[in-house]
Specification:
Oligomer: single chain
Structural class: mainly alpha
Distance between the termini: 58 Å
Helix content: 55-70%
Order of helices and strands: HHHHHHHHH
Radius of gyration: 26 Å
Strand content: under 5%
Length: about 150
């Protein structure tokens, strides 16, 4: 996840709206996998994007030691009080369960959905494998048992 976020930051594809929609899913995933460092990085990004609606969630995570202490301190989370339109928008939408998100994903189609969450998929192609051409003294590929130079060259 951090690699994808880094790529999106470098390419200027990361927006406040994108974070407001996806941050709650990332938080759930990182808590389940106990990625303390990644939660700290995500918290710092949410502070940078001024999304204060996640402040209470991160306060609870910090008190339960889910966040790496060196990454994000409780004092930083307590001073995290901003007001932005992105916060209001996420409050209007509320939270969604996994079934709702899967239902929405079915309308996009697998290709668009996978491209949205894995921007590197387009960069990775299957390697090209050249056909093996038989040498002069190799057996012929037709199955006759003769050497290739005697069978299929002529």
């Amino acid at each position: 996840m951090l690699r994808v976020l880094k790529h999106m930051v470098i390419c200027d594809e990361l927006t406040t709206d994108y974070f407001a929609v996806h941050a709650s899913l990332w938080i759930e995933s990182l808590v389940a996998k106990q990625h303390c460092y990644a939660l700290g990085v995500l918290g710092e990004m949410l502070i940078d994007f001024k999304l204060s609606s996640f402040q209470t969630i991160f306060m609870g995570l910090a008190q339960q030691d889910y966040i790496e202490p060196g990454m994000l301190k409780i004092s930083e989370i307590e001073s995290w009080s901003f007001d932005s339109n992105a916060d209001k928008r996420i409050d209007d939408f509320g939270t969604f369960d996994i079934m709702t998100v899967q239902y929405w994903a079915s309308f996009l189609g697998d290709d668009k959905w996978n491209a949205m969450f894995n921007p590197f998929a387009a960069l990775i192609d299957e390697p090209y494998v050249a056909d093996k051409t038989p040498g002069r003294n190799d057996p012929c590929f037709c199955g006759s048992g003769n050497k290739y130079k005697k069978c299929c060259l002529n």
